[in-house]
Amino acid sequence: MAYQWDFTPVFANADLLAQGLVNTLKVTGASLACGLVLGLGFALMRLSRQRLVSWPAGFVIEVFRTTPPLVQLFWFFFALPLIAGIEMTPLLAAVVTFSIQSAAFFAEVFRAGIVSVERGQWDGARAIGMTHGQALRRIVLPQAVKRMIPAFMERAIELMKTTTLVATIAYTDLLFAANEIAQKTFRPLETFTVAALIYFVVITAFSLLARQLERHLAVSGESTVH
Amino acid sequence: MHQWDFASVLDNTDALAVGALGTLRIFAICLVAGLSFGLVVGLGRYSQRRVFYWPATAFVEFFRNTPVLVQIIWFYFALPILMPFSISPLAAASLGISLNSAAFSAEIYRGGIQSIDRGQWDGARALGMSFLQAMRRIILPQALKRMTPALTNRAIEIFKMSTLASAVAYVELLQQAKLIASLNFNPIEAYTAVAVIFFVFLWPLVQLTYVLERRLARDE
Description:
The complex is a heterodimer. Chain A is an all-alpha fold.
């Protein structure tokens, strides 16, 4: 007997799915914002000539790039609260984990971007009397950031996919919401199919936007770093 | 201040060993299945025939633009409803990770094949080779060299992704850490130990990709 598809129980819970999607975007947005700031900090530390500054940054970057994100999330959710004696909510654990993790990736993008700016730009800035910090902020970073946009977008999309891991620590993101609906309605096939399609639509929209932006940058003659 | 107590983890090395075997098993399956199916899909993406190009493109777009955890959950909870048989955690996780890796590696293969100079094709065809012969003997060997760093990166990603199998209770390292943590009330040590194991295992591989990338940049 062929399976009778029935999507009505899923649509009856559309509000739960919408809330899940909002939470997914919330985790993604918060981690992205913190990750960018932290990533720039890591990159500047790593570019420092002082080993005491560059080594710790290098260590954090390596650790977060070479351990599985899910292990990191479990560590921050189950282990850190016991060490630090603090309360940890699933949302906080997720944002902390994904911020540091994205920062580790962003740091390498920032570093590549900063290094890609011609030496002469630095010299020029210094020649007109700017300090190192001023030259970085006013001359080098604005040029570097433009080249890094495609790599940032790509990473942001990866991040959104990675946020599904929060479902394993019971934060109500889109995947967790789908799981609840599936259990409540006994319609896992329809529910998870709809959830997958929502992810597909949202992520594809972001990818197309990223591609458009990349083409726009290419037209304006900007080289990009990856 | 927390008193670190790794003895409670070391008492459970046999459980961790079982987990490590599970991790290696699913890694091996997904590496072989993902990278070989990825080649097939990549050739489809490279093809000028619509019957090959469109299905391959749809596959790549779908599996790249959905989270791998959603795919695993779908194969575990949703697919069995359409099938007359049940699906084991290993099968569901392997399907999700392999298909996801196939989609990503397909783009690596396509890029690598496209990067080979047109003249190499012409030369091979002039010698009387068929398309497949030219691909196998002339194009792929050259392309593979260029693709090695990217494919090694993929392998590292697959290794990290294997932890997602714990979401459907497949016995691998992270799942065993959960077990050890809940039996001995030592989540700090259990999860730290697993993080260290992954780091020790993957760090040399990551360094290898750096070396490969640098060597390739120098040779080209």
